């Protein structure tokens, strides 16, 4: 049996949700699930369930426990001493799974494994589907839900921190901005937005985020922003190199050394579809590994169609075939300047002292790739000139390039053109973002939103994020807007 607290309070036994009853009964179950395997006293239950307990409070608790036992099984809730204990299997309560994922992520971060931490946190955060403790009694939710929401926000900030450490600032700006608008007084999150904007070359916007936060905090509390944010503002003004995107390095060892793990942006937690494209590119890479030339693949398509997301997904899937590592460069961050992008690639490949002369940079780059198996991801190419000198030439290496156009002037490219999702896949992505139960309740509205978004993954995620911020709103009403 599985229990849910990070959304509507539910119990499931293999199939659909079990009939738990009304709001007070759900609150009682939730109070016991918050302390799985531990005795919750009668006094604690009374104070949790009622702001002003009625004279019949203890009798009502006994009645609701009896009713829950009939639904959940007689051995699920046991009377022990002056309270009750709920015997839940380990891993059967979504809050427990979330807490364990957050704990493992903290350990991974402490060990320097920020990519693992980000993946663990995205998986843990995906357990949330709406406001916690949904359907439970108001007094109980009012007292208990804020602490749960604080845990979610802390995990989300940890996730942003880990993904920023992985160089995912470009992908994070929109998500962090939406969260700051919802939680404007959270200074850590505001600082993360400032860093993401600065690393995207949007220094003035990063400073405006600081100024907006200061004005808001003074209006709300009469206080100034904290010392950390003020120090961050000074660093942005000074263009402190410490704020530059992290360098993802691969070992300069040759191909016969131990395999190096790929260092890539995290895969989107709600990545959906593209099975045909993944199969096709995997086949191209498999064939290329047996050839005497590098494998070069370009993914093209309209803005928002999911080129970067697919490239990152593919790099994670195929990275194991490249024991000398993977490097990822967002060419847009370098203004389409191949000299700047090449300097970045050299640093990623372990070159501390990058040559000033263009020809020396090219020679050093090609020499580093020679005799090795490295995957190079060149994201957001604006044209052939920005890509051509960065493509590997050594057999065993490979490149994944994303661009709006097919880059017809580059020879030897296997080209994949991405199109908007089929309707079914578009609806599936929305369901993952807003919650499957909610999507299944209004399938026509979900399909309408998918069409209004042009079935483009980016637009679908934006619409889904806005719906997720309104967990009790009707999907049809949102579609009508």
TrEMBL record:
GO annotation terms (biological process): phosphorelay signal transduction system; regulation of DNA-templated transcription
PROSITE patterns documented for this protein: OMPR_PHOB
Keyword set, alphabetical order: DNA-binding, Transcription, Transcription regulation
A Pfam family this chain is assigned to: AAA_16
Highest taxon in the source lineage: Bacteria
DNA-binding region location: 1-88
Keyword DNA-binding: yes
GO molecular function: DNA binding
Family membership noted in the UniProt record: Belongs to the AfsR/DnrI/RedD regulatory family.
The protein's name in its UniProt record: AfsR family transcriptional regulator
Organism: Actinomadura harenae
Lineage of origin: Bacteria, Bacillati, Actinomycetota, Actinomycetes, Streptosporangiales
């Amino acid at each position: 049996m599985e229990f849910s607290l990070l959304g509507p309070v539910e119990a499931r036994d293999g199939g659909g949700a079990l009939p738990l009853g009304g709001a007070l009964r759900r609150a009682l179950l939730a109070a016991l699930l918050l302390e799985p395997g531990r005795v919750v006293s009668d006094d604690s239950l009374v104070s949790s369930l009622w702001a002003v307990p009625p004279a019949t409070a203890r009798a009502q608790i006994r009645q609701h426990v009896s009713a829950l036992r009939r639904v959940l099984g007689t051995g699920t809730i046991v009377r022990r001493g002056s309270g009750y204990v709920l015997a839940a299997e380990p891993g059967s309560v979504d809050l427990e799974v979330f807490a364990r994922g957050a704990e493992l992520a903290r350990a991974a971060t402490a060990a320097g494994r920020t990519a693992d931490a980000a993946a663990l946190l995205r998986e843990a955060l995906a357990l949330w589907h709406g406001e916690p403790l949904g359907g439970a009694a108001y007094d109980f939710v009012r007292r208990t839900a804020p602490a749960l929401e604080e845990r979610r926000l802390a995990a989300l900030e940890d996730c942003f921190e880990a993904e920023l450490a992985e160089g995912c600032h470009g992908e994070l700006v929109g998500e962090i901005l939406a969260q700051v608008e919802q939680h404007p007084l959270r200074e850590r999150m505001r600082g993360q937005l400032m860093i993401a904007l600065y690393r995207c070359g949007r220094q003035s916007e990063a400073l405006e985020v600081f100024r907006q936060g200061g004005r808001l905090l003074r209006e709300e509390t009469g206080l100034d922003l904290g010392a950390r944010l003020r120090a961050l503002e000074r660093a942005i003004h000074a263009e402190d190199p410490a704020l530059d995107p992290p360098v993802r390095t691969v070992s300069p060892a040759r191909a016969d050394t131990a395999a190096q793990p790929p260092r890539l942006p995290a895969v989107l937690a709600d990545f959906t579809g593209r099975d045909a494209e993944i199969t096709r590119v995997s086949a191209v890479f498999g064939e290329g590994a047996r050839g005497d030339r590098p494998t070069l693949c370009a993914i093209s398509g309209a803005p928002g169609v999911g080129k970067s997301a697919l490239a990152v997904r593919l790099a994670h899937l195929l990275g194991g075939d490249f024991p000398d590592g993977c490097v990822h460069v967002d060419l847009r961050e370098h203004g389409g300047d191949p000299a700047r992008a090449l300097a970045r690639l050299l640093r990623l490949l372990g070159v501390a002292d990058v040559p000033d002369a263009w020809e020396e940079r090219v020679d050093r780059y090609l020499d580093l790739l020679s005799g090795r198996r490295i995957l190079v991801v060149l994201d957001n190419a604006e044209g052939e000139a920005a890509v051509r000198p960065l493509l590997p030439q050594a057999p065993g290496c490979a490149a994944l390039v994303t661009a709006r156009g097919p880059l017809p002037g580059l020879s030897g490219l296997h080209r994949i053109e991405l199109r908007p999702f089929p309707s079914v896949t578009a609806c599936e992505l929305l369901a993952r973002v807003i919650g499957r139960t909610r999507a299944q309740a209004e399938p026509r509205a979900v399909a309408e939103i998918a069409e209004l978004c042009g079935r483009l993954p980016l637009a679908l995620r934006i619409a889904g994020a806005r719906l997720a911020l309104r967990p009790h709103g009707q999907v049809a009403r949102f579609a009508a807007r």
